[in-house]
Design brief:
The chain has 124 residues and is of the alpha+beta class. It has 2 domains: 80 residues, Up-down Bundle (Single alpha-helices involved in coiled-coils or other helix-helix interfaces); 44 residues, no CATH class. It has 4 helices and 3 strands, in the order ααααβββ. A 3-stranded antiparallel beta sheet has the order 1-2-3, with no helix packed on it. Helix 2 runs antiparallel to helix 3. The protein is globular. The protein starts with a helix and ends with a strand.
């Protein structure tokens, strides 16, 4: 009999340990998942609409960045370099930014923003 009681206590303790992920933690995870989906969708829409309406595309990029910051979600790597590190605008090659490849010392890309004149370098 004492062995059975010990097993029940062990099972109860395990259940209590697994309860650590409560409703609040699950809802936060769900919020982040939704935010990540919205960030990706907004950036895709901004890319599609840029030729027709530049102001709307830039506002989509700004909204995506704010959603990512507020919900603490990372912007996908393929989009991260498209934001100016100085003025935080969404950049489009040949329109409001230039990209040059340099091979001196360490090979890198030089990205110049036409909005603020900021220059950033990125290894390739």
């Amino acid at each position: 009999m004492p062995l059975l009681i010990g097993c029940r206590i062990y099972v109860i303790k395990l259940r209590l340990l697994h309860r650590g992920v409560g409703r609040k933690a699950r809802s936060k995870a769900r919020e982040r998942e939704i935010a990540s989906q919205r960030v990706r969708r907004l950036l895709q829409l901004a890319d599609e609409i840029y030729r027709r309406d530049k102001a709307l595309a830039i506002s989509y990029g700004d909204l995506a960045r704010r959603i990512a910051m507020r919900s603490r979600v990372r912007i996908p790597k393929e989009w991260r370099w498209r934001f100016c590190r100085h003025c935080k605008k969404l950049l489009y090659p040949g329109v409001n930014m230039s990209v040059r490849a340099r091979s001196r010392r360490m090979p890198h890309l030089v990205i110049r923003c036409y909005e603020c004149g900021g220059v950033s370098r990125r290894p390739y």
